[in-house]
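A reminder from the course coordinator: this example appears on the midterm review sheet, so study it carefully.

Given structure:
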């Protein structure tokens, strides 16, 4: 954290009435883990998801690594696991 970030961080703590830094990080952590698995993966792999979504929108092919081979594919959609869809119902 640098000096300008520290000011933003302290302002965030005050605005959200957070008393300790531990409480702040705990809130972030629990907000993250309370998301469904596919949402957490979208957060972690945001750049990949954006590239796939752009390729879908533009109709472009993308390169993926699958079983140690680079493949050029046409993405059609991003599918959520069937086990997670049940959780959504």
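Designed residues:
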């Amino acid at each position: 954290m640098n000096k300008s970030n520290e000011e933003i961080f302290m302002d965030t703590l005050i605005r959200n009435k957070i008393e300790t830094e531990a409480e702040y990080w705990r809130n972030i952590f629990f907000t993250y883990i309370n998301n469904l698995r596919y949402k957490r993966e979208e957060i972690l792999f945001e750049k990949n998801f954006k590239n796939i979504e752009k390729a879908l929108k533009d109709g472009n092919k993308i390169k993926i690594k699958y079983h140690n081979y680079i493949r050029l594919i046409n993405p059609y959609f991003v599918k959520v696991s069937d086990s997670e869809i049940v959780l959504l119902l």
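The chain has two domains: 1-34, 46-89. Helices lie at 3-15, 21-33, 37-44, 46-58, 82-88.
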